[in-house]
C-alpha cells in the first residue's frame, strides 16, 4: 500500500485495469491519468509555457511564484549554460510542518529540516520562508542538471550537484576552513556537524572551476561528459586535464589552505631495474670475497 511521501506531489499518475474471467479472457481498459496532489490542502495551479506551479493560500501568490520561477530559470541558464528541456512543476507549502509528510518517506525521518527538495527531473518541492526565492533557484538547479544529465549511470557527486545549486542561488557560504577531503565531498556528509561546511566547500569548488578553468562553458562540457556514463575522474580529465585529486590540490591552494601531502611516487621501471642490477652485483661480489676467504683459510698450513 502507498503511504504519504512515496509519490512526489504533482506527479502525473497513469493507470489501467486488467479484468479476467474464468475462461481466461482478459479485458484491458483504456489508460487513464490524474495529477496527484496532497489531499490535505486545496491546491491552486497556474501554467505558463512548460512551467506549472502549485500552491494553496492567497490567489495572488501564483503570479509571483511563476515570475520568480522564470527569473530563477534565467539565472541558471546564465550562470551554468543549461536550460529547461522538460516540463517543470513547482509545489509550494506554507511551512515545514505542512511539507514534511510529503517528503519524509523518500528522505527519512532523521534528516535535518530541508528548505526544499528536488524530487525528480521535473518536480521541486519547497516551503515558504525568508529566502524562499534562493531555495527555488537551488532546487531548480537540481531539476535542470538532472534533465541535462538524465541517464542510468550519470549520478553527480555531492560536491558537484550541491556546488552547482549553491553557486546559482547566490551568496557566499562560510565554512571553507579545515576543508573536507574530496572523497567525503563526493559522497556527501554523514555527520550533522559536517553539513554546513560540506555545502560551503562544494560551492567553493564549483566557484573555483568556473572562475579559474573555463567558466560555464566547461561546466556544461563536464555535465555533458558525465551524461555519457563516464566516471567523474574521467570526465574531469577530459574537460580540465586533472582528476579529483588534482582538483583538490589546486582548490586548496586557491582558498589558501594547506594541501595534503602526497606520498612519494614509486620509482619508474628503469630506476627499479638499475637498483636490482646494482644489488645483484654487490651480492655477487660479497660471495666471491667469501669464497676467496674460505680457500685461504683451508690452504693455511697447520702449526
UniProtKB/TrEMBL annotation:
Transmembrane segments: 272-298
Organism: candidate division WWE3 bacterium RIFCSPLOWO2_01_FULL_53_14
Keywords linked to the UniProt accession: Membrane, Transmembrane, Transmembrane helix
The protein's name: Peptidase MA-like domain-containing protein
Transmembrane listed as a keyword: yes
Claim: Membrane is one of the keywords in the record: yes
One Pfam family per UniProt: Peptidase_MA_2
Record-annotated Peptidase MA-like domain positions: 72-255
